[in-house]
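For reproducibility, we list the full input for the 1,3-dihydroxyacetonephosphate complex.
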Amino acid sequence: MKPIVAGNWKMNKTVDEGVSFVNEVKNRILDKDSAEVIFCPPFTSLFSIANLLDNSPFYLGAQNVHHEIQGAYTGEVSIQMLKSLSVDYVILGHSERRTIFGESGEFVRDKINTVLNQGIKPILCIGEALDERRSGQTEKVLQKQLEQSLNGISGINGDNFLLAYEPIWAIGTGNTATEVQVAEAHAKIRSMVGNMLGKNGQNIPILYGGSVNVDNAGSLIDTNGVDGFLIGGASLDIESFCKIIELVTDNIKRG
Ligand code: 13P
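The corresponding predicted structure, in tokenized form, follows.
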């Protein structure tokens, strides 16, 4: 499986800024076969960036979607609207959506269902808060988030679904999880997914997210069970983002 480098821009970059950023990445990243690069801009930039990615090996992701197909949901965006922009992925269950916007596990589940049904790939984020880790609850929290999100959904496999382990305490804090913590969490997630989905769970990529930067990306991509990254802050900076893609690519070449 190709390693994945996804940039979650969150609420950053105007359309013009996003377009020039993506053009610059396209010019700089010459080895386009080694890693799968996914841009996840805000909704407002999806249309313009989709046009840039036509016939390119880069992919487009949205940061959210509503689970209903259409209707009276002021301010929301539907999966068919995203599909019409050739969006390949949708980030779901991000801790910022869960904590700041109160999205429940069931709500996330409904979104996953809708996205899968329309042939788009969800990137489901799970992760524990600092107090949960400190009180030894990490495994329980991850298990619960997975169970709630996947409950009753069939047909999930490594070709249509991605997971991202994003410990909340590592997001935007500079406190990256250690390689040992990441390896341990990814191994647990892999086994939980195996228990829930059997063979279909085996090839689901598990990304790491939480203060990934140019200094830690090389060792983190080398860590057992890490299939790529979901990057926030460092995906906004052209030098950092391209350097991380190169580090991931170099890692594959080293084998
Ligand atoms: P940072 O890389 O800024 O810590 O953000 C991670 C994240 O939340 C990606 O979805």
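Residues 66 and 77 are 6 Å apart (CA to CA). The domain at 4-254 is CATH 3.20.20.70 (TIM Barrel). Both points were considered when choosing residues for closer inspection.
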